């Protein structure tokens, strides 16, 4: 890689730096869009589990709606190459919904991973408009983590700041939930 240069080696092939940045940006956005589909599936399943009271269900509905909007924004940024629900076979563990606590713990694992993806993307995405998008998504996903932490009995304002998670680690964290 040439720092400030015109080319970058990607998988042993030298490509223009702008193209390499765009490919890296797109990979993060595709991962984020896929993760939003997992989160939407989680909230749908949690709502159907009958493990939550009326006010908690309202919170879960709002989070699901937000994740659907996040996906729409990412899909618009990606264009026709955006992953779709048909591209993923989302598989959430049945045990994750056997109790309210299990569902909240599963939701926290998913939402923390998503927030971390966006923190990483905000630090590394090259295109300013995309960087602004993922920064706003990181902020929104952090509210989801706080809301789920509150459902777990914790202080939503004491939730730790999301740590950046690179594509490889995020894929490891989320791969058990899709095929």
Supply the helix-strand structural class. Answer: mainly alpha
From the spread of the alpha carbons, the general shape counts as: globular
At the first level of CATH, what is the class? Answer: Mainly Alpha
Order of helices and strands: EEHHHHH
Q: Give the oligomeric state of the chains in this entry, treating copies of one chain as homo and distinct chains as hetero.
A: single chain
Residue runs with pLDDT of under 50 for 5 or more positions: 1-20
CATH homologous superfamily designation: Ferritin, core subunit, four-helix bundle
- Number of E strands: 2
Distance between the termini: 33 Å
In percent, how much strand structure appears in the residues?
under 5%
Account of the protein in words:
By secondary structure, the chain is mainly α. It has a single domain, classed as Ferritin. Helices cover 64% and strands 4% of the residues. It is built from five helices and two strands, in the order ββααααα. The protein has a two-stranded antiparallel sheet with strand order 1-2. A hairpin with a 2-residue loop joins strand 1 (7-10) and strand 2. Helix 1 (17-48) runs parallel beside helix 5 (167-174) and helix 3 runs antiparallel to helix 5. Residues 1-20 have low confidence and may be disordered.
What characteristics describe this protein?
disordered N terminus; 64% helix; mainly alpha; Ferritin; 179 residues; two-stranded antiparallel ribbon
Element layout with pairings:
Elements: E1 7-10, E2 13-16, H1 17-48, H2 54-78, H3 100-124, H4 128-151, H5 167-174
Antiparallel strand pairs: 1-2
């Amino acid at each position: 890689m040439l720092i400030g240069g015109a080319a970058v080696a990607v998988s042993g092939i030298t490509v223009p730096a702008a193209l390499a940045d765009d490919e890296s940006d797109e990979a993060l956005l595709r991962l984020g869009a896929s993760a939003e589909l997992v989160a939407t599936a989680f909230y749908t399943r949690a709502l159907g589990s009958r493990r939550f009271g009326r006010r908690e269900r309202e919170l879960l509905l709002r989070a699901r709606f937000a994740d659907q909007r996040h996906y729409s924004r990412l899909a618009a940024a990606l264009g026709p190459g955006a992953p779709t629900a048909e591209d993923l076979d989302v598989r959430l563990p049945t045990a994750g919904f056997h109790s309210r606590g299990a569902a909240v713990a599963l939701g926290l694992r998913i939402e923390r991973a998503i927030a971390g993806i966006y923190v990483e993307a905000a630090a590394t995405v090259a295109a300013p408009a995309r960087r602004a998008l993922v920064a706003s998504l990181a902020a929104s996903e952090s509210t989801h983590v706080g809301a789920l932490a509150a459902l777990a009995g914790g202080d939503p304002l004491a939730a730790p700041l999301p740590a950046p998670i690179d594509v490889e680690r995020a894929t490891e964290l989320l791969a058990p939930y899709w095929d």
